Amino acid sequence: MSSAQPLSASGRLPEPAFTTGCLPYRRLLPELARLLRDRSVQVPPRLVLPLAGGASLFVMPAADSDTAITKLITFTPANAGHGRATIQGDVVVFDVATGKRLALLDGPAVTARRTAAVSVLAAQHLAPCRQGPMLIVGAGVQGCAHLEAFAECLGIQMFFIASRSAASTQRLVDHARSLGLKAQAVPDANAALAECPLAVTCTPASAVALSALPRPDGFIAAVGAFTPQMAELGAGLCRHVAVQGTVVLDTPDAVHEAGDLLQAGLDASRFATLADVVRGNALQARGPVLFKSCGWAGWDLAAARTARAWLAETAGMADGR
Question: Is residue 1 part of a domain?
Answer without folding.
Answer: no
